[in-house]
Automatic annotation (TrEMBL), chain A:
GO terms for molecular function: ATP binding; ATP hydrolysis activity. Residues 5-247 form the ABC transporter domain. InterPro entries: AAA+_ATPase, ABC_carbohydrate_import_ATPase, ABC_transporter-like_ATP-bd, P-loop_NTPase. It holds the Pfam family ABC_tran. Keywords: ATP-binding, Nucleotide-binding. This is Monosaccharide ABC transporter ATP-binding protein, CUT2 family. It comes from Streptoalloteichus hindustanus. CDD domains: ABC_Carb_Monos_I.
Automatic annotation (TrEMBL), chain B:
This is Monosaccharide ABC transporter membrane protein, CUT2 family. One of its GO terms (molecular function) is transmembrane transporter activity. GO terms for cellular component: plasma membrane. Keywords: Cell membrane, Membrane, Transmembrane, Transmembrane helix. It comes from Streptoalloteichus hindustanus. The lineage of its organism: Bacteria, Bacillati, Actinomycetota, Actinomycetes, Pseudonocardiales.
Amino acid sequence: MGALLEARNLVKHYGSVEALRGASFEVRAGEVVALIGDNGAGKSTLVKCLSGAEQPDSGEILLDGQPVALDSPTRARQLGIETVYQDLAVAPELDPAANLYLGRELRRGGLLGRLGMLDKAEMRRRASEHFRTLGVQVQSLDVPIGALSGGQRQGVAVARAVVWANKVVFMDEPTAALGVVQRERVLDVIRRVRDTGVAVVLISHNMPEVQAVADRVEVLRLGRRVARFTAADVRLEQLVGAMTGALSQEDAA
Amino acid sequence: MSDNAGTTNGSGVTDTGKSTVDTEGARGLPRRTTWQRLVGASTFWIGLVLVALYVVFSVLRPDAFPTLYNFQTLLIEAAVLLVLSVGMTFVIITSGIDLSVGSVLVFSGVAGAMTMEAVSPDGDATQAGAGTIAIGLLLSLASGAAWGLLNGLLIARFRIPPLIVTLGSFGAALGAAQLLTGGVDVRTVPSALRDSLGFGQTLQVPHMVLVAAAVTMFGAWLLHTTKFGRYTYAIGSNEEAARRVGISVTRHLVLVYTFVGLLAGLAGFMSLAYFGTTTLGGHSTDNLNSIAATVLGGTSLFGGVGTVLGTVFGVFIPAVLQKGFVIVGVQPFWQPIAVSVVLVAAVWFDQRRRRARDSGR
């Protein structure tokens, strides 16, 4: 099966700093790929390039085998690529349904809709359904999500990305601020999303978590992909070795 | 389920049906009842304070306070401030502030009045008809909106803090109004305007109040049911999040400040109709009064929270106190003191609420 989203030889400079030096990456439909690497390996930059937040200086990005230009996050979202940010990008004063539909509000039919009136009841109903199918637990749909626990808030943030993503979801450390139980919930959501055929890219520093949820692992080091593993038969030492440079599989791709 | 079974099997009573059945999955999350929503809303309690004040003064002076005349003047005198405060509610919900509303009101009144004079014979607009009045209204609205647009562009596009931008236009708009008039109030306001809008009534409802009520209802509709309102909350709640989901934050903020400017322009025209003069020196504290009313009404200075109804209560609490103190014979100087205490307490509660929430539950 071919790659759903693929990056080939991406190069990105920030002034004199080379964040990506010919990085490659691929993710297939219906799999969870963990993107790991030490600090400064270029993970964030790579994700920014693939989610439209930054443009690479050179290299190619292919979606479904076709070259695409992801010139803005909006463009990436139109193509079905969503991102869950590390710092919860939710509006704490709005309720879960409003957050889920933020920027994509449903309007009423007819004249009232054209005047900009929202169909709150329908958004609430559908949001409740989405949360249920994703297994995201939300105490109440009527409170601002700032009043929910960290895990529930993150659940809403994840749901917002995956509900709209029909191709790829990037998750930058989605469990970093969570407790054990909440972390498990988010990982469950990730698995459910994968089972719907969407590709999930997980950036994480937590190796046990990577081994628990990922199907494959791609390792970045100094702005380049240095190794690829199948998660099921990779050992922790191999991952750490690849990250630190003690072990290298791939030549400059 | 297992521990639940453990507590019930001793008695032999099978009341396990009471255990937490997962109805959420089947029917969606339970909706709160209307009563629960009502009591949970700070607006409800603010409204209760207003009603209580009204009742207290009515009991103290049943002959003088709860009269139709007193009620009408209460409403008329609050009408201009209400129009300003509806706009202020939008601005504060975006976590902004607008100090310029009073000056923009004066400038718009001057622009409207001078235009009406200019198109009237001998520069005296007193006898002017509907056409002239319409031109005056248009000029007032346009100049209000222009100041708002300027504020919005400086704040959203040039990223200058709203406090500084509107402090600037607070001074500049009043200065410009004084330059235009040479510091002397324009006094020839069409009597047709004064009779229709300023003192006119329909079925005992003053027209000033009708206009203010219409603005308030439009504001409530815009804020609470439309996408425009939703984005206003979203930007105040988390500007970065709004940006990331593709909301055009710059454009929206410019629109919000233009809207409040437009309302200040309308308020300027209403003030013109009511006072029959441009009242150059009379609006230096309108900004603080409308901010106080908005915050008193439960709108958070940190953004993301607020209602138009709350602002209505926030406008009338100081107004009722003022009227009540005068009628009851308490020195009215107590009014600003009482309002200030309530205001500071309201903000203190808001901050405690936020801190309790942010300290991570």
